[in-house]
Design a protein that fits this description.
- The protein contains six helices and 13 strands.
- The chain is α/β, with parallel strands linked by helices.
- The protein has a single domain, classed as Spore Coat Polysaccharide Biosynthesis Protein SpsA, Chain A (Alpha-Beta Complex), CATH 3.90.550.
- β2 (about 30-35) and β3 (about 35) form a beta hairpin.
- One of its GO terms (molecular function) is nucleotidyltransferase activity.
């Protein structure tokens, strides 16, 4: 398969409130999974697939992300967009902020995902959506497919226990033409102050009226996990165990930075410690009034 896409848009503005206390002094994307930051894993995967440019929407602890990428992605072009209202808006607003920064085809990835490095290869041509058969731990946006394995409908924040539907993995590839149509629809949402929606709401509207199409890429046979809370982090560490140092390639980046979590907070035990009961600390991650995760 020819690889056309060389740009990735990463959304990394949120506070990661459900991962507190791990995110009190580091953004969610720098939380370590088996000793390696989520963002470090993601950057290594993107690099292996030939991505040359990153556009990163930041917000909470923006300086930590800049420090990390400055040290760990010197070979990539990195452009930053700061979301000043990250505490009170949803990801639709972060996506809208990127509307003028990208003109080419790109892959859109949420920065709380860990996955096998080979999974991105099939997403590097435009207008694809990564999906997976629904498993018990999954929640969030699901899609229905037509007979051609294209998306027939989105269902945002619905019950996912439906054999006819597939869970979105929160990885999308977009052509420049699709992106132009999306940004016009995003403009309408923001003008109407609908900034607390998920961007999938826009995708759902556009698929419904025929102005946006996605072909499905199935991730069922691959390992991946979306990390929203401490319990998710524990499960991800079981799925992606620590790699012995002598097996790490020379191009791997372990992400040395003063902002890493949980290493910076020495009073917080690592989840690799089997004695940790994640259900005992997940309640700490409470939202402040008006705050978005």
């Amino acid at each position: 398969m020819s690889k056309h896409i060389r740009t990735a848009l990463l959304l990394a503005a949120g506070t990661g409130s459900r991962l507190r206390p791990l995110t009190l002094d580091a953004p969610k994307c720098l939380t370590e999974v088996s000793g390696e930051p989520i963002l470090g894993r993601l950057i290594d995967n993107l690099r292996l697939q030939g991505i040359k440019r990153l556009v990163v929407v930041t917000g909470y602890l923006d300086e930590c992300i800049r420090e990390f990428l400055g040290k760990n992605a010197p070979d990539l072009q990195v452009d930053y967009i700061f979301n000043p209202v990250y505490r009170t808006t949803n990801n639709i607003y972060s996506l809208w902020l990127a509307r003028k920064a990208i003109e080419e085809s790109f892959v859109l990835i949420e920065s709380d995902l860990v996955f096998e490095e080979s999974m991105l290869e099939r997403m590097l041509v435009p207008d694809k959506i990564a999906i997976s058969k629904i498993l018990p731990w999954m929640n969030g946006t699901v899609v229905e497919l037509n007979s051609n394995n294209s998306v027939a409908a989105f269902h945002v924040s619905h019950d996912v226990n439906d054999a006819k539907r597939y869970k979105t993995v929160n990885i999308y590839s977009l052509s420049s033409q699709s992106w132009q149509r999306i940004t016009k629809r995003l403009d309408q949402y923001v003008a109407d102050n609908q900034v607390n929606e998920y961007y999938e709401t826009v995708f759902a509207d556009m698929v419904r009226d025929g102005s946006l199409e996605f072909d499905a890429v199935f991730f069922d046979k691959n390992k991946w996990y979306e990390i929203d809370c401490v319990k998710d982090l524990h499960e991800a560490e079981l799925m992606f165990p620590r790699v012995p140092l002598d097996t790490i390639s020379e191009t791997a980046h372990l992400g040395h930075t003063s902002c890493l979590s949980p290493a910076k907070s020495t009073n917080i035990p690592k989840l690799e410690n089997k004695r940790l009961r994640s259900d005992k600390i997940v309640h700490i991650g409470k939202l402040a009034p008006g705050e978005k995760p």
